[in-house]
Amino acid sequence: FSQPSCVFQMDTTQESYLDLFPLDTIVYLTPDSENVLEDIDPNKVYVLGGLVDESIHKKLTLQRAQEQSLQTARLPIREYMVKTTNTKNYYSETLAINQVFEVLSTYYETQSWPAALKAGVSSGKGYVVPDTVK
């Protein structure tokens, strides 16, 4: 059993992230962004967009970020993962907030997108890191 090497502190507030941080430091993560997140900048604030039902509200997080004039980025799933053969023919780059957090925290520790994506993207999404393709 190993202990995680980093500890995360979480604060909650009623205030909006728009009031707490300068707009030019905020990066809204959305699977619909054309910008690929290549590295984590410790001087940036990353907003994890979350929805209850992704099938009804396509591109809602991207639209919200654009309305707020925020930078956007998406995880590099297409760049480091491949579609796997599955019976449902289902492929999704939309992850739950805990999965996105797992990807980001693993990347921050390892500096490896393949390791981070392997840790956070479940096989049910239809993508795998190439070295795990059978």
TrEMBL record:
Entry annotated with the keyword S-adenosyl-L-methionine: yes
Annotated InterPro entries: MT_TRM10-typ, MT_TRM10-typ_sf, tRNA_m1G_MeTrfase_euk
First-tier enzyme category under EC: transferase
Database matches in PROSITE patterns: SAM_MT_TRM10
Enzyme nomenclature, EC number: 2.1.1.221
GO cellular component: nucleoplasm
Biological process according to GO: tRNA N1-guanine methylation
Domain annotation SAM-dependent MTase TRM10-type: ranges: 1-128
Catalysed reactions listed for this entry: guanosine(9) in tRNA + S-adenosyl-L-methionine = N(1)-methylguanosine(9) in tRNA + S-adenosyl-L-homocysteine + H(+)
Keywords for this protein: Methyltransferase, S-adenosyl-L-methionine, Transferase
Keyword Methyltransferase: yes
Gene Ontology terms for molecular function: tRNA (guanosine(9)-N1)-methyltransferase activity; tRNA binding
UniProt protein name: tRNA (guanine(9)-N(1))-methyltransferase
Organism: Centropus bengalensis
Lineage of the organism: Eukaryota, Metazoa, Chordata, Craniata, Vertebrata
